[in-house]
Amino acid sequence: MTKTPAPSPGSTQETWLHAAYDALTEGGVEAVKIMPLAKRLGVTRSGFYWHFKDREALLEAMVRYWEDKNTGNLIARCDAYSETICEAVLNLFDCWLDDTLFDGRLDLAIRNWARVDSGLAARLAHADTRRKAAVQAMFLRFGYAASEAEIRTLTLIYTQIGYLSMQVTEDRALRFSRMHGYVEVFTGQTPTVSELDRFIARHDTAPLPADITP
To answer: Whole-prediction pTM value?
Structure first.
């Protein structure tokens, strides 16, 4: 029986996943192929099979990673403790500013991939349903009527999807300067200076500009 050669030094499941992530976000799912990934890593193709049964197993691992990270963290931020709806929305905004919580490039790549993969499209729809339910529950928790909570939820989520699909790039300071207005639009309420200060402090940025006051 022929044995699969031992993996090359530096060839781990994580390195293959990282290479697949780069290929997916740069060139789409068609770019995620074993031989090009091996060349990218500078290792042999045979080492791949120590970590994954086949290409489909690698793709499945990528999708599970996206589900756990993006959808899982978004739901967790919606469920996080907050005393006001403004604070709750700012908790959710953590996802848009911290790549360790939510990877926008990966989310866009998954959405593009789902256009040509019906199975993934169904999983994306399920993920979006879970995200909408979590955001809507957040609004309901603070006394919004069901119909209003639904509209505010869709406005918030569709705005963020628009950011991703349009690949908007903003100076970080500019984006922070708009947070006050975004919270007002999404909630109909005015965040306090202390709520905004705590939010900004989490992301290690400069204090609020003088004109960003309620």
So the answer is: 0.88
